[in-house]
Design goal:
The complex is a heterodimer of chains A (246) and B (342). Chain A is built from four helices and 18 strands. Chain A has 246 residues and is α+β, with helices and mostly antiparallel strands. Chain A has two domains: 112 residues, Proliferating Cell Nuclear Antigen; 109 residues, Roll (DNA Polymerase III, Chain A, domain 2), CATH 3.10.150.10. Chain A is elongated, with a radius of gyration of 19 Å. By secondary structure, chain B is an alpha/beta fold. Chain B has a seven-stranded mixed β-sheet, with helices on both faces. A two-stranded antiparallel ribbon of chain B has the order 7-8. Classes of the chains: A alpha+beta (246), B alpha/beta (342). The interface between A and B is medium-sized, with 27 and 20 residues.
Chain lengths: 246, 342
């Protein structure tokens, strides 16, 4: 038995929107603490760890821990229809579907068939990040959108004073400078830089709209970790860098 | 050919963009036949070089793959090995059909009936060993990985998809679903505007995606039952199937009786093939783990020498396409994988 209710659908809508483009299908663990989704994209470039605590929901009931195999693309298509309606989620284990109900003046019910997913434990890379910077998510998302105008990749760089988000393209360059004082926290043990594909970042920043803050863990030519957090939810990404060749 | 499942299977139209970043194992022979039958002059003559050697397949392989790769798709070409013994009948039958089509094509050309000539010409498409070797050589120069299957290419492609090493199989046939491929992409190398035979009309062909799991769920069948159903309709290993039974009737029978052996017993059907042997070919086909799939930068000089110097392709067009191929491959290769840090 599992059911949950969200008076405001925003947190679920945005977090699924942020991950569904890179992860096709995933096993979502449901425990008494909430929902957890950990998965890697098929190309093994990005790793997603989404945690929605039970406190993020207005109602949350589960009898015993379970794993729901979800086609995320399909779930995202359904959630896009939610508008601002209240969402009710209920497992119909007899028919192996998740009932997703939008409630307003009418009640709309979608059946999302559950799929089989492998329950292999996901390996997680062990990384030491020399720099950790916490900034308002809006700064990050706007810089990524700036970079998209000129290129398909972006360089993240920090020194003792600033975080730089820059992109170079055939038609011009862009650089966004975020001074230390604007950051919520700024721990830089040495300057470092890595380059990343915007194809992934532009999906990841969709989480900006629901997060209060984003913490960026950066090193030299290693993956970047970005934790978007709010009181009752955390969406964490690990993204492999692009290595400049030649 | 392959098994005729179109009526029962729900194919979803998709955009090429949706396939960006995905590795797809393409049934090479299936794709080469498409090129050879589609890429032709108005009277049905295939493209040829100055020595009269056919180049339709090379043109298709080159330009179509550059297109796919530009969309971010990572194609792997899987070539057939030794066909299973049971396939002999089909191979022979196809060969006779092609002889017949060849005769009709020449006749139509001599009588000036171009429209008819083109159709017969398409049906007469056949491959020589040299054309297959040329295809492998071109793919290698382009930096596109080639996998040699021990037996059926489609089975090997399905095996790689089921293992998760590629995201989907690519073919016009449905057989890879029977071989266990979780996803089948159709129309990958033939998308675009196509003329409808015998009509002054065109249709737009778009890529399609078929999910094995969804198919089985919608039909409420297991994969073994889908194999049984296909044997009833006719597969490459028993081309005639059971007389008078098409997809709809086969489906109804499987739903009623559960499996092929029960159907044969209950309906007192005479069959001239071994059910277990064919089932085995689909459910446990001969495949290999010995292959590498790496995308490399194209060897531009070798490609130009082969296509332009030897086969009379336009230097200008080939150069432009090679530049696109090189840029995209560079971009894709610079993206590292998280596995490096595990």
């Amino acid at each position: 038995m599992f059911k949950a209710r969200l008076a405001d659908p925003k947190i679920l809508k945005y977090s699924i929107d942020a991950v569904s483009n890179m992860i096709d299908e995933a096993g979502v663990s449901v425990t008494k603490d909430g929902l957890r989704l950990k998965a890697m994209d098929p190309a093994h470039v990005a790793l997603v760890d989404l945690e929605l605590k039970k406190e993020a929901f207005d109602e949350f009931e589960v009898e015993e821990p379970l794993v729901l195999g979800i086609d995320l693309e399909r779930l995202n298509t359904i959630l896009k229809r939610a508008g601002t309606d209240q969402i009710l989620i209920q497992l119909d284990s007899e028919n192996n579907v998740l009932k997703i109900r939008f409630k307003n003046s009418s009640t709309r019910t979608f059946d999302l068939p559950l799929i089989e997913v492998s329950e292999e434990e996901l390996k997680v890379p062990n990384l030491d990040f020399p720099s950790q910077i916490e900034i308002p998510p809006k700064i990050l998302s706007e810089s990524i959108k700036d970079a998209e105008i000129v290129s398909d990749h972006v360089t993240l760089m920090v020194d003792e004073e600033n975080l730089f988000i820059s992109a170079k393209g055939d038609l011009g360059n862009v650089e966004v400078k975020v001074p230390k004082d604007e950051a919520k926290s700024f721990e830089v043990s040495k300057s470092c830089r890595s380059m990343f594909s915007l194809e992934y970042l532009k999906d990841m920043i969709k989480a900006s709209d629901i997060a209060d803050s984003v913490k960026i863990y950066l090193g030299d030519n290693i993956p970047v970790r970005m934790d978007f957090t709010t009181e009752n939810a955390r969406l964490s990404f690990l993204l492999a860098p692009r290595i400049e060749s030649e | 050919m392959g098994v005729q499942l179109a009526e029962l299977v729900n194919a979803k139209e998709i955009d090429f963009q949706a396939l960006s970043g995905k590795k797809i194992a393409i049934d090479a022979m299936n794709s080469l036949y498409q090129f050879l039958s589609i890429i032709r002059q108005p009277d049905g003559t295939p493209l040829m070089d100055s020595q009269g050697r056919i180049t339709s397949h090379l043109s298709g392989l080159f330009y179509r793959n550059v297109n796919l790769i530009e969309f971010g798709i990572k194609p792997v070409y899987v070539f057939d090995g030794k066909p299973p013994k049971l396939k002999g009948a089909v191979v022979e039958e196809r060969s006779e059909l092609r002889d017949e089509a060849q005769r009709k094509w020449l006749e139509a050309v001599s009588k000036g009936r171009l429209e008819e000539a083109r159709i017969f010409a398409q049906q007469s498409s056949r491959f020589t060993e040299e054309m297959i070797e040329d295809s492998k050589k071109l793919l290698k120069y382009m930096g596109v990985p080639v996998v040699q299957a021990p037996s059926e290419g489609e089975a090997q492609a399905a095996y790689m998809a089921a293992k998760g090493e590629v995201w989907a199989t690519g073919s016009q046939d449905y057989d890879s679903l029977l071989f266990g491929s979780p996803r089948l992409a159709k129309n990958l190398t033939i998308s675009g505007r196509r003329k409808i035979p015998r009509k002054q009309a065109y249709i737009e062909i778009k890529p399609e995606l078929i999910s094995l799991e969804e198919t089985l769920r919608e039909l409420e069948l297991t994969r073994a039952q889908l194999v049984d159903l296909s044997i009833l309709i006719g597969t490459d290993y028993n081309p005639k199937g059971v007389e008078g039974i098409g997809p709809k009737k086969a489906y109804a029978l499987i739903k009623e009786f559960g499996d092929l052996k029960t159907i044969v017993r209950e309906k007192k059907i005479d069959i001239n093939f071994d059910i277990d042997e064919i089932r085995e070919l689909f459910l446990n086909p001969e495949v290999t783990d010995e292959y590498k799939i790496n995308w490399e930068l194209p060897n531009k000089d070798k490609t130009i020498e082969f296509l332009c110097t030897e086969r009379d392709f336009s230097l200008d067009r080939v150069k432009k396409a090679l530049d696109k191929l090189e840029n995209k491959t560079k971009e894709v290769k610079s993206q590292s994988s998280l596995e490096k840090w595990f």
